[in-house]
Amino acid sequence: MPEYLAPGVYVEEVEFSPNSIGGASTTITGFIGPTLFGPPYGVSELLTSYADFEAIYGGLDPLQFEDAGEETINYLAQNVRAFFQNGGQQIYVVRTFSSVARGMEEEESSQVYQPFGTQCCASATIADTASGSPADSIQLFARYPGSICGDGNLTLTFTVYTTKNVLSGKPHNPLLPSGPKDPVLLGVNNYDTVWIQQNEGSPAMAAIYWAEKYLNPVTQQWDWQFHAEGGGVPLQLSALQPAQTGVTGDVVQVVTVSVTVAFGGAFPRSISYPGLTFHPASPTSLSTFFALKPNSRSQALTVPLVFDPQSQFADGPTIARIMLTQPRSLPEIGRLKRLLNFGPLGSPPAPNLDLSILGTLGYPQLANTDRQFQVALTGGLDGFWPTPRYYEGDDSDPTAKTGLKSFEDLTDISIVAAPGSTAANEDLASDLDMADKLTIAGLLITHCEQMLYRVAVLDSINGQDLTDVAAYRGQLDSKYAALYYPWVRIVDPVSENEINLPPSGFVAGLYVANDIATGVHKAPANMVVDLAIGFELMLNKAQQDVLNPLGINCFRFFEGRGYRLWGARTISSDSQWMYVNVRRYFCYLEHSIDLGTQWVVFEPNNQALWARVAQSASSFLYTEWQAGHLMGTKPEQAYFVRCDQSTMTQYDLDNGRLICLIGVAPVEPAEFVIFRIGQWTASLTS
């Protein structure tokens, strides 16, 4: 209550409308399974296109598991593509990655869940070819494991750029502008790597430094000094001579590097990172931008490279020298010497002047290809075929959750699937393979039942006939899951051959398209399956007559109507939850009411609060009834809301409980449309 202490007029705002309940999202999807690249731990990123997925998790190229004899179709990537093609809008992806062979998890438990494992990540080394010392070698790693980075599939191109001379001069005496000039730097940042050529004296001196801006204790002014590799006495800016009348002047050029990361595979792509520097303390350095632990989540997800993961090097000149000292042929050195007017071929080089580095930095007119080199990463692995424990996940480290555990922190997901988890593993005994698939399906179901507001889209196993899929269905029962059969046939963009894909990606996309076009209350069925050119098994009506009563949703081909999803049942044995749309609609209602009534907690638990809660719920359900989402010609036929002393006892009130009872009449699909037609004798009399 406000206090009224002094006489006056008080204007206050009051609310007359009830607290409204907004509809929760039903279209956000979560997929889990192996991918070519990307993080196998931590909170997933919300993706809104296949391009977003490709940037983090790689493309459609097949996987090569260490315990599989042949390449495996990249089912999850293919299903993400199918998801967006069929109407999907937003998706989270969790990568499952096994760096330990089946059965060895206990012996190698420390390797089961590790954020950065060099044994599965592709790597390369940049070495100072002149020094030959192992200490002068920079390590490069792919940020995450994956064969997409190995065997030359990931190529790094480093291109070095130098600016024009940034050393200028200002008159020492403003009254004598043509007199001696003091050196001034233009366009230099702290920690920048610079190439300095001092032309005074014979021979000329040239070297690489890093620039530091500091407060000069003598002049009490900010000044510049330059540090060479290995430290020593810094070179002061005041020691440099700017160009002026009769004096050639020294040269200071800022050195930067751009990195282009090129991925191979069926659909090559590249990413460029321009304007990077060398000193690790610089915010734009190679060591910072490609750090083992990046400064931003976006970099951790999309920057695929780790530069010097052990932080072995501490200054820019060392890194620049190692990267730029590349072997050159004698004719090339001779060409560079002639270009630089350095004397005839065979004459000795000037002291302290490395011709290789000079050819890279000291002559800006040289083509960029003269300052460019490539490194190919090797050794990346896709790990082993992921077993159920990798789908279940681990939450012992809250910052690096894996598997389905990482989906538990994402409350907006409403559809969950594991595309590819039911692909037959030919290298595994059939009984063990079946046990894995049933376990993973059970994990998806348990996850949805615990999270309450999401459903699992389950795939049948490829190669199953009607008897097999019926037996598989018979081992599952949940009102939070639906099973789809058979697999969908498409033309693989990678091989351009026909392949069969698990249906969950297509189905999840159709769920979303259905919700956007009509609403979650409508059965997601009788919809055209985009990308499909057929199915693994072309079912007829008689075959579906066997499967539909079991709760197995089928894909069918209809002449003139295309390839369609032709089923909308859950795998529940409870007839009240027979239909997918009823289950999903109740998830929507429950989630919406949950989110829209959080304001109630800790309010005074009295009749006034009960009335407000009932009014909020009634307003929400009235809107649903008006939209045609509920049965009944009148609101009282569609729903009821009670929140009073008939729903709560004194014991409930004493224990801080407010209980609101809500009943709704959902719209069930017209699954069987029956027209009864008979002969009728027309009356000839008027």
UniProtKB/TrEMBL annotation:
<protein>
    <recommendedName>
        <fullName>Tail sheath protein C-terminal domain-containing protein</fullName>
    </recommendedName>
</protein>
<feature type="domain" description="Tail sheath protein C-terminal">
    <location>
        <begin position="572"/>
        <end position="677"/>
    </location>
</feature>
<dbReference type="InterPro" id="IPR020287">
    <property type="entry name" value="Tail_sheath_C"/>
</dbReference>
<dbReference type="Pfam" id="PF04984">
    <property type="entry name" value="Phage_sheath_1"/>
</dbReference>
<feature type="domain" description="Tail sheath protein subtilisin-like">
    <location>
        <begin position="439"/>
        <end position="570"/>
    </location>
</feature>
<dbReference type="InterPro" id="IPR052042">
    <property type="entry name" value="Tail_sheath_structural"/>
</dbReference>
<dbReference type="Pfam" id="PF17482">
    <property type="entry name" value="Phage_sheath_1C"/>
</dbReference>
<comment type="similarity">
    <text>Belongs to the myoviridae tail sheath protein family.</text>
</comment>
<dbReference type="InterPro" id="IPR035089">
    <property type="entry name" value="Phage_sheath_subtilisin"/>
</dbReference>
